[in-house]
Amino acid sequence: MKKTLFITGGSRGIGRGIALVFAQNGYDVAFTYHTAEDAAVSLKKEIEQLGQKAYYRQASLEEKGTAHQAVSWAAEVLGEISCIVCNAGLTVHTDIRKMKEEDIDFVYRLDYAGYLLCASEAAKHMISGEIPGRILFVTSSRGQRVYPEDALYGGMKAGLHRACESMALELSEYGITVNCIAPGNTAIRGNFTGEELSGSKFQQKIPMGRSGTPKEVGKLACFLASEDAGYITGTVVRIDGGLILPVMPEDVSEGAGPGWHELPAYMQEK
């Protein structure tokens, strides 16, 4: 089986980290970008310098028909798709009292329907080609931990976790695995060293004392795409440095860690 990756939203951030790790491990890569064409050109050059083939295409995956077109294109340029990583998405945090219908439609189309439609097309390609492939969703620890102003984005990520389980059941007879990778706080710019990863008070509250990197997410994705992970399916693997492990602290001092330190508005003195 050829080692080929199709990743959506691959030109920047976590997507770029994933694409480069796969290329370093012998994969040819096809990826989509939304607006960052310069970054897409740069990534293509980096992958080719690693001795692998690289292809890119602009795609607005919230638009109807785009998922089918993107996966068909990737299968054509790569010859076959052995792994698809659905990564393209946008974070939208909205107070429930201010939520707009267009916000819901956009996040649903991009962060939920886009994932499922790409996965559906890839699954059909893998089954017809008798490819025991890998389908990976990049989600978020927000799909497991509740935050305010996160009913929309976090709710969609939680929905993907549940959808992954059903897909894993359906596709297991074909040797295809389906899993989610749920990053926590991840640095997406800079050299990913020193002050950039651990310089803020928030980063220091993470149990491991720092943010994660796109390369670390890429290494996890590459493992889940490998033959060594052939017995792992229908699960969510969190990569967050322990970010969501702490619960509300009994100690409310400034250095106590994550939690609610102030009284709710309705309990405060008027």
Structure characterization notes:
The chain is an alpha/beta fold. It has one domain (4-267): Rossmann fold. The protein contains eight helices and seven strands. The protein has helices at 13-24, 37-49, 66-78, 101-128, 153-171, 195-198, 201-205, 214-224; strands spanning 4-7, 28-33, 54-58, 83-86, 134-138, 177-183, 236-239. A seven-stranded parallel beta sheet has the order 3-2-1-4-5-6-7, with helices on both faces. Helix 5 (153-171) links the parallel strand 5 (134-138) and strand 6 (177-183). Helix 1 (13-24) crosses helix 8 and helix 4 (101-128) runs parallel beside helix 5 (153-171). The chain is globular and about 60 Å long. The N and C termini lie far apart (68 Å). Residues 259-264 have low confidence and may be disordered.
Radius of gyration: 19 Å
Number of helices: 8
> Could you list the spans in which at least 5 consecutive residues all have pLDDT below 50?
259-264
CATH T-level fold name: Rossmann fold
User: Which structural category do the helix and sheet elements fall into?
Assistant: alpha/beta
Task: Summarize model confidence as the mean pLDDT.
Answer: 90
Strand order of the largest sheet: 3-2-1-4-5-6-7
Largest sheet geometry: 7 strands, parallel
Strand content: 5-15%
Note the run of SSEs as H and E. EHEHEHEHEHEHHHE
- Shape field: globular
Q: How many β-strand runs? A: 7
The second-level CATH architecture is: 3-Layer(aba) Sandwich
CATH class: Alpha Beta
What is the share of helical residues? 25-40%
Query: Please, what is the CATH homologous superfamily?
Result: NAD(P)-binding Rossmann-like Domain
InterPro entries: NAD(P)-bd_dom_sf (IPR036291), SDR (IPR050259), SDR_fam (IPR002347)
Pfam families: adh_short_C2
Enzyme class: oxidoreductase
GO biological process, one term: bile acid metabolic process
